[in-house]
Amino acid sequence: MARSVNRATLVGNLGKDPELRTTPNGKSVCSFSVATSDSFKDASGNWQETTEWHTVVCWEGLANQVAETLRKGNKVYIEGKIKHRSYEGKDGVTRYVTEILANTVISMGGRESGSSYSSDYGEKSYSEPSSYSTPDLDVSLSDDVPF
Fold first, then answer.
1. Total structural domains within the chain
2. What is the pTM assigned to this prediction?
């Protein structure tokens, strides 16, 4: 039986300070944005640069460590998995979100240069929260796949 792999690796810079929240169940959740850049030569031979923005989410102990030490502009190495989800906003419109659910965060520069943080869960023992709240939205995580 073939196994599948969902693994994301990012090296980039924090676009804003991490935002730490607590769910109604008392679990810590931290989110922040990471920018990654790519350079290429266009058809005219001129160098172009593109930037992609990624939303990263950490839970529990990892969330607390990241919120305490990382700041906007820090270069970080992130390992985790890609998570797609949808939710209905207060206006009734369905929104779709793609996030990196981090299990390892390593600071590569800035305030805590060289610091490494990992979640305290293993691949098999981690159970993702079924829902969490953001300041403006009630967001539900779901593994339902529409196809």
1. 1
2. 0.71
Q: Do 67 and 30 form a contact (C-beta atoms < 8 A)? A: yes
Task: Read off the pLDDT of residues 35-53 as tens digits, 9 standing for 90 and up.
Answer: 999 999 999 999 999 999 9
130: in domain: no
- Round the average pLDDT of the chain to a whole number and report it: 81
Domain-embedded: residue 55: yes
Quote the CA–CA distance of 141 and 121 in Å, as a whole number: 19
- Sort 9 into a burial class: Cβ within 10 Å, 0-12 / 13-18 / 19+: exposed
137 in a domain, yes or no?
no
Query: Does residue 73 come out as left (phi exceeding 0), alpha (psi in the -120 to 50 range) or beta?
Result: left
